[in-house]
Specification:
CATH architecture: 3-Layer(aba) Sandwich
Radius of gyration: 15 Å
Strand content: 5-15%
Helix content: 40-55%
Largest sheet: 4 strands, parallel
Strand order of the largest sheet: 2-1-3-4
Mean pLDDT: 93
Number of strands: 4
CATH superfamily: Hypothetical protein PA1492
Low-confidence stretches: none
CATH topology: Rossmann fold
Distance between the termini: 14 Å
Number of helices: 5
Amino acid sequence: MKAQLILIAGPYRGGTGGDPQLMAKNLLRLEEVALQVYQRGHLPLIGEWLALPLASVAGSQRLGDKISEEFMYPLAHRLIQRCDAILRIAGESDGADNDVRVAQQQGIKVYYQLEEIANINSLSPG
């Protein structure tokens, strides 16, 4: 089995009420899961890793403004087209739920538990 490009989908803004500290905590949680995906031999990706810097360079003043909204969900949907799978982690997130819908419409595998993802680091030839 070859390494998969896996989008980690879960809460970033959801349930934070716009509190930057809670969003940072959510991003850390996404990144902790991304590390575990990497340790299983795959390439994890989080949409915010790309969307946030691009929105900032484009002139976004704050998350949720018109400019940032041009990047957050649209970028994730472009990424989904390139991914082999999505890992939907627990937690309230309209964006992550939408990512799952888009992936399913495109026939892309959706995982709901880390354990569903093959640990290809444990596979050794001969």
